[in-house]
Amino acid sequence: MMQLFNSRLCALCKGRKLLCGRPTCPILERFRVVKSVERIVNRREIFGSSPPSIFVGEFGYPRVRIGPLVPPIEGNTSYLDNPLKWENKTINDILKYRSLLVMGETKADVKVSKSQRILSEIQELAMSIRPVDSEILLKRKPILKVLPNEFAPPVGPKAELLDFELTENPRIPRKIDYVVSDELKAEEAIIKLYTWEFDEYYIIRLLSAGLLGISRKLVPTRWSITAVQDTIGKHLRKEILKYDTINEFELYFYEFLGNRYAVLLMPESYAFELLEVWLKGSLFGSEEPQVIHDYEDWRGIRGYAEETTGAYYAARLSVLEFLRNRKRQARILVFREVTPKYYAPVGVWQIRLGVKKALKNPVGKFDTLQEALNEVKKLLEHPLEKYLEKSWLLKMRKKQMTLDEFLKNF
Q1: Last residue in a domain, options 208, 233, 258
Q2: 362 in helix, strand or coil?
Q3: Are 179 and 262 in a shared domain?
Q4: Are residues 103 and 74 in the same domain?
Q5: How confident is the model over 370-374, as a mean pLDDT?
Q6: What is the reported pLDDT for 2?
Q7: Which residues have CB under 8 Å from 85's CB, separation 6+?
Q8: How many helices (H) and strands (E) does the chain have?
Q9: Is 21 domain-assigned?
Q10: Which domain holds residue 285?
Q11: Considering only Cβ atoms within 10 Å of each terminal Cβ, which end of the chain, N or C, has fewer?
């Protein structure tokens, strides 16, 4: 497996021969996306309807980059920043959406100061549930490149912000005014908003903008995504622990944006594990792909998901919602295989959505674990034995059954 970009190989290939083994050239695809929008975003003054959207960086914390994202388009632009509605879109569609969102960035201390006019405007934008006509003035024309991100949706063109103004009143629900003005802990506010069925990425935006919690601080977008998904996941886990277990082994599968998701539910008390492999030829793959994983039992994960990082919380939340809706608990094993078709990271939302889509696509029900694993083996490219050797959940079962017994019928 070559490196993500190998200068010698790229010079020989020039995007035509696909010598890296990928189905499409990631360099050329990003170039095409940028060129397709260059004419309308290559300006210092941008007027349009923000989806609404903001971004908070993490570099330099506690002094971070923050800014509104405004496209040179008016009208209903919500589709540009609504990941949970991108289920029928391609990676190219998403890169194009994000390349239309011009970010005017400014530096700010994470401790929110009400004396900062531009920050107050950004916070008002964040609270809106509808696109808001906005105007940004940049110090120079934005740098035209799309930077894919394994956590947040890709960041598009950006430049230093000189001024930002909302040119119409944002639509802010009364419940949001109540939560923002009340002295609630951030966790309480997140659960309250989730219970009221506010969009998950709307809650993430509020947290990023420093609008939730007793001690108000800006929160980098990447951290906000994990914090919101983890907080909701913990809340749902407490609920499903009260329910009876499912009755059979259940297997679900879906392939989404070059990611394969197999979800195995076992008729046992709650535990969760994510097993992940970046296959040979994928962005972060190697000549000998390795299984990485994180796991938890009914008490929750210890610390942070160090190996699978944000993917863990996104996948877990989708399965917990599925079980909560059924009023059942189960032991959960999620397999994620990343293929070369996933040529540009677009954020953990695709994991959240990919697992949700898998859970709508049942493969079958089985009386035994071995029968279920036989089917898993047919769905995945990486050797099942490698997963079994790594899995904490399956090792727990080895106390009752040896690995050789697992494999004897494969």
Answers
A1: 233
A2: strand
A3: no
A4: yes
A5: 96
A6: 38
A7: 79
A8: 14, 12
A9: no
A10: 249-407
A11: C
Inside any domain, residue 356 = yes
Cis peptide before 52 (omega within 30 of 0): yes
Same-domain check for residues 158 and 49 = yes
**Residues whose CB is less than 8 angstroms from the CB of residue 206 and which lie 6 or more positions away in sequence, other chains included:** 126, 127, 176, 180, 189, 193, 212
User: DSSP letter at 142?
Assistant: P
pLDDT tens for residues 378-395?
A: 999 999 999 999 999 998
pLDDT in tens, 341-357: 998 889 999 999 999 99
Residue 140 CB neighbour total at 10 angstroms: 9
Q: Who contacts 335 (Cβ-Cβ below 8 Å, separation ≥6)?
A: 260, 261, 262, 263, 264, 275, 276, 376, 380, 387
Provide the b/e sequence for 328-346 (b: ≥16 CB within 10 Å).
bbbbbbbbbbbbbbbbbbb
Return the structure tokens found at 169. Answer: 């009143």
Q: In terms of domains, do 48 and 90 share one?
A: yes
Q: Choose one of 233, 261, 291: the last residue of a domain.
A: 233
Q: How far apart are CA 405 and CA 396, in angstroms?
A: 14
One domain, residues 167 and 255: no
pLDDT of residue 3: 46
User: Same structural domain for residues 147 and 277?
Assistant: no
Helix, strand or coil, per DSSP, at residue 141: coil
Q: What's the CA gap between 351 and 83, in Å, rounded?
A: 11
Q: What is the pLDDT of residue 21?
A: 67
Count CB-CB contacts under 10 A for residue 14: 11
Cβ proximity of 134 and 47 under 8 Å: yes
Per-residue buried b or exposed e for 155-182, using 16+ beta carbons within 10 Å of the residue's own CB? bbbbbebeebebeeebeeeeebeebbee
Contacts (Cβ under 8 Å, ≥6 apart) of 71: 41, 46, 48, 49, 50, 51, 77, 80, 100, 101, 102
List C-alpha distances in Å: 389 to 259, 314, 374, 398, 404.
22, 24, 16, 10, 11
Angle, in degrees to the nearest 10, between helices 26-41 and 91-99: 30
Q: Which residues pair with 401 in a beta bridge?
A: none
Residues 320 and 185 in one domain: no
Q: How many domains does the chain divide into?
A: 2
Q: Assess whether 41 and 186 both reside in one domain.
A: yes
In a domain, 242, yes or no: no
Q: Tokens 């390795």 appear where?
A: 290
Assess if residue 51 is contained within a domain: yes
